[in-house]
């Protein structure tokens, strides 16, 4: 165990006994024991190993990503029994589903099918998803869309660590944060056209991150709420700093800590884009409209 590096995750699946909150970070691990074990804290002060435990690292090696399919590409075989997640590497909505798939350790279960949105193939609309958007998920002879629905679907219909808590108060707050996202996104985007950024936009995120004290994430432990917000904050942060000289973490210690913790989660970091690439993309997209 000494060979493990700091900055990863550890998932225990253990019942009984119940484990206390675990504050440190280690690599993503799965423990197969005599008792099924389930605990989604980030790390632990020491390794709690019951008898006859085998240790298997999962999600710790970088996945070889397939090239994006464009108008010249042949379509994959549709409805062949293999779940397929159609994404774009640059789309924050698709990134949500990619993160959820990775975190649950489904790299071998759900095949990534990246689409080139600037030169998308006709067969995607005609044969896969008539809405012609990403993400979409092919599963059980159906194709479903909408990122917020899909992260819930992936969490509920596939194996792996749960991304939605059982605690009723946390579930209620999660629904509030899902509902809040659109107004948060619109407020940030509208600020791109203003001289200054409304502090209240990110103050609301700071307040939300202060609600639960059992961890640095929106619901204390990592959840679908973090997945819903992370791809967008990843893009807002470099753009606002460069264009508006506005640091979203100034005076917001919870948000700064959340960003730091998110950057320790490999399921997320392997989906991140180069900040310079994101910056140039947002400049091209939004500054031309100002």
TrEMBL record:
This is Glutathione S-transferase L1 isoform X3. It comes from Nicotiana tabacum (Common tobacco).
